[in-house]
Design a protein that fits this description.
heterodimer; A: alpha+beta; five-stranded mixed beta sheet; 5 helices; 39% helix; B: mainly alpha; two-stranded antiparallel ribbon; 6 helices; 2 strands
Chain lengths: 137, 137
């Protein structure tokens, strides 16, 4: 394979991955079975919301984390039954491993019992968060 | 926390993409060694001190009409470190005459730089937590 072919292949593969990546960020992925652990207020650092709790995991080397935090903090202001907690993933590695958090930002959506209903990777749009919240009762 | 204009690293990633593409096509060890040196400055001193950042500040930024987007310096700096690791691997591979090592390492660095330039891909978001999980108990 000559080097020009290699270059084209790398750029094509990266472009395909890039489009998939961009489209899949922020999308709420619902769990098929609610088999996760019941997270306590002590574990996530805030009281559980009466309907939903959003738990965001962030890290220092992550620029979309700040935008996500700003959006979610702003959204919960007008939603009395939804709570938001922000966790520095590096300082909570045990929890990170237990919940298998691999990238940041990852936002978990917990139901009123503190069990994960689904999660979103990357910065979601306001409408995506609204949609996810509306689906949880 | 130091903030820099986020358009700088994005512009630098575009130049990096071109330089790495030239490295891949020509298989010239000096091209990848030069890029390794640029990555080293970006990782050790900060991405705002590389020659590419200088070009951005001197020639590009004064011509941009959009407002600067301030961003934490740590995510792009981390990405420079990952780029450095690949570029050093490629340089050693080329110097030792192992073409496959050179090609694969340059291809990964090129894909990452291209994703950063074209899709604003955040490498630290995807890689950092996995690194921490793998290296700490």
């Amino acid at each position: 394979m000559d080097s020009l072919t290699q270059l084209v292949l790398v750029l094509l593969a990266a472009t395909g991955f890039g489009f998939w990546f961009k489209r899949s960020r922020g999308e709420f992925r619902r769990k098929k079975t609610l088999n996760g652990p019941k997270l306590s207020p002590a574990a996530i650092g805030c009281e559980l919301g009466s309907r939903v709790t959003m738990v965001q995991f962030s890290s220092a080397f992550c620029s979309p984390c700040r935008a996500t935090q700003a959006l979610l903090e702003d959204m919960v202001k007008t939603l009395p039954d939804v709570r938001y907690s922000h966790i520095d993933a590096e300082s909570q590695l045990e929890l990170v491993r237990e919940l298998d958090i691999r990238s940041t930002p990852t936002t978990l959506f917990l139901n009123r019992d503190g069990v994960e209903v689904g999660r979103a990777f990357g910065t979601p749009k306001r409408s995506q968060v609204m949609h996810a919240l509306n689906a949880i009762h | 926390m130091i903030n820099i204009d986020a358009r700088g690293p994005r512009f630098s990633a575009a130049i990096t993409t071109v330089v790495l593409a030239v490295a891949l096509i020509t298989s010239n060890v000096w091209v990848i060694a030069f890029q390794a040196a640029v990555f080293a400055i970006g990782a050790l001193r900060g991405p705002q001190f590389t020659p590419y950042a200088f070009i951005f500040k001197k020639f590009i930024k004064p011509r941009l009409k959009s407002e600067p987007i301030l961003e934490d310096v740590r995510p792009p700096r981390f990405a420079q470190g990952v780029g450095l690791a690949f570029a050093v691997t490629a340089t050693i591979g080329a110097a030792a005459g192992i073409t496959q090592v050179f090609t694969v390492a340059v291809a990964f660095a090129l894909a990452a730089a291209f994703l950063n330039a074209a899709f604003n891909f955040c490498l630290g978001c995807q890689v950092y937590l996995l690194l921490v999980r793998a290296t700490s108990k």
